[in-house]
Amino acid sequence: EKAGYEHFMIKEINEQPKALADTLFPRIHDGKIDLTDAGFSDDMIEGIRKIYIVACGTASYAAQVGKYVIERLARVSVEVDAGSEFRYRNPVLEPDMLVIVISQSGETADTIAALREAKKRGLKVIAITNVVGSTLSREADAVFYTRAGMEIAVASTKAYITQLLALYMIAMEVGRIKGKLADEEYARLLKELERVPELSKEPMEKKKDLQKLASQRYMDQHAFYIGRGLDYAVAMEGTMKIKEVSYIHAEAFSAGELKHGTIALIEKNTLVVALATQADLLEKMMSNIKEVKARGGYVFAIVQERDAATVADQVDQVFTIPNVEDLFAPMLSVIPLQMLGYYAAVSKGCDVDKPRNLAKSVTVE
Ligand code: F6R
């Protein structure tokens, strides 16, 4: 039941700190992430040359974060594909490739079809899923269970965040076993990762800022979500959240790409949600923000606390997430985006938990 919340979506957003903790802590033993139950042995990891991640919708946006993080920490190249594309394009698959499928429900037809295709072609498939006993969990060679608990709202929130976490854990383990991540750096990252469940409580405390934005006229027509690198991957998920529950059209852009055409759509008061959580990209992001401001856009920026003062006078509104290792920022920055979608839907009077045209799991192709 809703435990005092108005909708399942906001209840599940608030359950994210627990979902993260439940997925992370039972898998840490003696200062190491233990993924043996999910099919990752040292031998198996040493044999991986390339990773293919296949998923649909929100899970595929989690995969986009995963690609970035795995490539960064493990130096293994990662390809991401939608289930419905993978199957019909005769993908180039090689024997030393690992296929990871991600699905909250474990019942998405396109993702199941992709798993079957990969297995038919002789590849090992690991499923990241939230549902014990689901089709994917039964058919995969091994399963990484996210422990988000049952997700009822159609818009995925706590499942997505645990999918991110699962991918971070995989990236760190592959990086460690392959010798790409030195012991010290691994230990430092793990310590930081252990802080994330607690830190993820903070954005919920600032709901007023998001409610305010959600009820303003900037939300009328359409919005752009921009970011670079990891922030771009999170922007994709952010636009999904606002589109599906509030029916506001939103598009995610890598900030550097905006000027190659789409900036033509920025006019006075167009809402631009700018994610700028990455220190090495902050300066570049600021110049993209200036381009948007110069055309009258209304910029809502999401940054780490440490950068709030730098950014404040160059944007219209700032939302800060707690300071964290940059790599892990997606698990915090997605929360205000989920809340923005939620509050926009509430202020428009939409049926938040059951948006039009959508079902919780898509079992048709
Ligand atoms: C969006 C959403 C969908 C699902 C997609 C895949 O909030 O929930 O995009 O992510 O239909 O579903 P699963 O993860 O069950 O395979």
UniProtKB/TrEMBL annotation:
One of the protein's GO biological processes: UDP-N-acetylglucosamine metabolic process
Reaction(s) catalysed by this chain's protein: D-fructose 6-phosphate + L-glutamine = D-glucosamine 6-phosphate + L-glutamate
* Domain SIS span(s) in chain numbering: 40-180, 214-355
Location(s) in or outside the cell: Cytoplasm
Q: What is its EC number?
A: 2.6.1.16
Q: Which UniProt keywords apply?
A: Aminotransferase, Cytoplasm, Glutamine amidotransferase, Repeat, Transferase
Q: Can you list the GO cellular component terms from the UniProt entry?
A: cytosol
GO molecular function terms attached to this record? carbohydrate derivative binding; glutamine-fructose-6-phosphate transaminase (isomerizing) activity
Specify the domain of life of the species encoding this protein.
Bacteria
Q: Where is the active site?
A: 360
Protein purpose: Catalyzes the first step in hexosamine metabolism, converting fructose-6P into glucosamine-6P using glutamine as a nitrogen source.
Assembly with partners or alone: Homodimer.
Q: What is the recorded name of this protein? A: Glutamine--fructose-6-phosphate aminotransferase [isomerizing]
Gene giving rise to this polypeptide: glmS
